[in-house]
Amino acid sequence: MESQTKLYEQIGNTWNVYKKCVPGMARAYDTLPMEVYQDGALPGKIKRLMALTGALVHGCRACILFQTENALAAGATVEEVLEACSVAISLGGTLGAGETTRVVRFLEEKGLLPKVAVKS
User: What is the largest CA-CA distance in the chain?
Assistant: First the structure.
C-alpha cells in the first residue's frame, strides 16, 4: 500500500511547482481558503471536518489528506476525524468507506493510531 504521508508531500510539492508557474492564479486561489477556514459562526476545526467529509464522499485523495492534516492542526482529535469519516460513509457508501481507509493509513503513519497489519 502506498505511503499516504509521502503522497501528501508529493502532492504538496507538485502543487507548489504549479503555483510558481501561475502566480496570479495561486494568489487568487489561496485567498478563498484563508477566508473560509477562519473561525466564524463555526470554528475552523469544524469547517475542516466538514471539508474532510466532502472530500471523502467526492473521492479527492489530495483533499482527503490535506483536510485531515489541517483538521488535526486546527485542534481536531483523532476521534473527531474518525467521526467525520463516519458521516462520509453514511453519505457516500462504499466510496466513503474506501476513501476512509486512506485517512486511517495516514493517521497510522503519523503515529496517531496503532498500526494494524494489513495483508497485501
Answer: 46
The answer to whether 67 and 85 have CB atoms below 8 angstroms apart is: no
Q: Which CATH architecture has domain 4-109?
A: Up-down Bundle (1.20)
**Which phi and psi angles does 114 have, rounded to 5°?**
-65, 140
The amino acid occupying position 8 is Y
Task: Note the helical H segments in 1-120.
Answer: 4-21, 23-36, 44-58, 61-73, 78-109
Task: Identify the sign of the CA torsion 39, 45, 51, 53.
Answer: negative
Rounded to whole angstroms, the Cα distance separating 15 from 105 reads: 22
| Residue-wise pLDDT tens digits, 15-54 | 999 999 999 999 999 999 999 999 999 999 999 999 999 9
Contact yes or no for 100/85 (Cβ under 8 A): yes
Query: pLDDT tens digits for 87-100?
Result: 999 999 999 999 99
The pTM of the full predicted model, rounded to 2 decimals, is 0.91
